[in-house]
User: Fold this.
Amino acid sequence: MIGRWPYLLFAGLLVASLLSVGVLERKVFADLQALATAQNDDVSWTMSQLEVELMGLQNAILDARAEATGEFSTVRKRFDIFFSRITTFRQSAFFKSLSSDEDTVKRLAIVVDFLDVTAPVIDADDGLLEAALPDLNIAVVELRTVVRGLALAGVEVFSQQEAERRATLSGTLKRSAYGLVLLICLLMFAVGILITLFRQGLRVSQMSEVARARYEAAIASSLDAVLVVDTNGRIMEFNGAAEAVFGYSREEALGADMSELVVPARLRALHRDGMRRFLKTGEAHVIGKGRLRLEGLRKSGEVFPVELSISLSDASGERVFVSFLRDITSELIAEEELRSALTKAQESERAKSDLLTVMSHEMRTPLNGILGSLDVLEKDGLSEKQAQHLNAISVSGELLLSHVNDVLELSRISAQALDEKRDVFDLKALVQSTLDSLQGHAEARNNKLTVEFLTPNLTWVTGNQTSFQRCLVNLVGNALKFTEDGIVSVDVERLDNSEVVEVRIADTGVGIAPENLGRIFEEFVTVDTAYDRTNSGTGLGLAITKGLLEGMRGFIEVESELDEGSLITVRVPLPSVARREATPVSGFGEQSLPSLPAGFQCLVVDDNKINRDVLTAILTELGGVVTEASDGFQAIDLAAETAFEVMFLDISMPEIDGIETLARIRTRSGASQNATAMAVTAHAAPADHAKIRSESFTDVLIKPLNKAVIHQSLAALWGIDVVDDFVGESEKKIPEFLQQFGMEKFQAALDEALIEIEDLLSSISESSYISEKAREEAHRLSGSAAILDLEPLWVALQELQNFPDDAWGKGQSTLISNIRAEVDHARKTWA
Assistant:
């Protein structure tokens, strides 16, 4: 929109032009008036009269001499007239214009000298005058030439002045003409602007009328009730929807007080206070705050819920409030029904989760017991028949446990969001080692298993190592299962130097019929093939694999020809990272470590059996002789009787913690009063470490425990140099418990810990507060999570242990859901 300054500029130019033209016209008028005075004739007459009067004086002198009457009055009179003419000429403005001419000044000086010399003679007595007449006549004759030259000079100068005046007048007239032309142009421009503004005004008026018509139509046809209210609270507009909502006719509502008409009695005072505050200070709590849920009042007196939005309109200094509102009674009913349905769905999901928990506890635990007992029985001497029976039981038990694991795994994947876990690992080494572990499976079915890396940048990558490895095992294992006397090949390459890695698994197996290709990723689907009876399963392997890949934002597709084979293509983002080569390791942690003194005595104090078992195994492998204590009191008694070189004390234990235990050992004069103390804790904060070290602990070990870290701490105790980075990256990614005890015991410990965590969650899910016993159990289980390298679960249990009582009601559901999600993730990762 154009601002005001162009119009002000134009108005200024117009006024300046008018003033200029006025000044010029005034000057023209003055010049014309000067010309109208006929000054030229006056000057010519005046200059000629000088010569005429001088001739008159000469004639009078001649007459006086000729008549000899002695009458000289006429001579004196003519002299006076000539004297007067000269005086008048000298005093006139015209003479000033002649004063710059030297000849004119000289001539006038001669005339003045004549008058000065002659005047005493004229004024003398008649005798003297008569005697002087001849000389006087001669002087007058001589003077006539001077007077004529003076007259001619005056006429010439005056002519020049007149020419200049005419030129000035001509210039003034030209400027006036230019000014008039400019003025006319400006006036025409002004007329054009006025016409344009007039047309714009018409268009704006038409647009305003159209907008007003549309506004009125929108208001009238709006499904929402629309109320327009002035600053006094009076209703100015009340549409048809408002009539339907509130029950008032438009005629009844217009001009009425809105607060009295549609605001419930209990809210009127607040409404009026809010209006006064806004009008006074501009502070708004409702106006311009979007949609708000309040209450309205119908004509019948019914109070009902409304969704309200109020905006301020300020046009030409007139402020009005425009309110849009709707009756949301039905929406609230629908929302309540949805909440009820959601609650029921959540209860159903919890019931499903509880059922799976029972399955895990009631089925997996007995199966582990059966399989463990079989391992023991196999050590005894058995007959061949008995060994066959036990082998059948073992195989069937393992198969049943695998099926249970698949069902639980699929449930966990379907209930979990995308997994954001990121590991740094050597992709090429991971693929190679995984396929190496499957070579036995391939040879059992007389298959050839090969792998080829097609691009060079397949070493260090970042991604979910566990999920990727699980997918690879599932897919290659599936290909081997349905291929016999054939070939299974794996190709790995990075696509166009991008973040995406493509893995292709091709086999020459039985293939899949076209009608079954769309079903293989569904749950509990097994495709009928020639190997059905010898390759039974739950039909969950590919469904689990697809879920894991989706969790990594990956993609999977299958191409297959029946009786020819299949090609499975997997694409997953695994960005390359810069990483130095790790020290090679073999197996699960078999590495060369600097030797420690053999047979050193150590005490392990921890209320968690898993923690004690792991630490005992590590210390034993490092050459130590270990004594265990399950609480602080037992540790105090053992420290009094036995001289330990090193004591490992868990900081958080029930009854008395590790700090109090060490303090009591130090105050007693027992055998281990001055023994070195190592703190074992799940607390990673530097402030906690500083506090622990201040209590005479030599070092602080952070769960999950790692053999390399423990070794370094002990080596430092005896002054043995250790290279900080001798531990390979592959070992750092494997939980210490798994390294020490193997997968079977790790899985059993994991199942036990997860079952206990679920029991804890069940016990507190309906509780209105966290008991001290529950907090202690959360601490104990967080230690188990730490020793099993389940860091996210450890963090969640730590949060539960330290959760504020006053926030329990609000955060209970979310925290329990988070812990359950981490439990599910742990099962999915290690099932």
In short: The longest strand covers residues 303-315. Residues 546 and 556 are 7 Å apart (CA to CA).
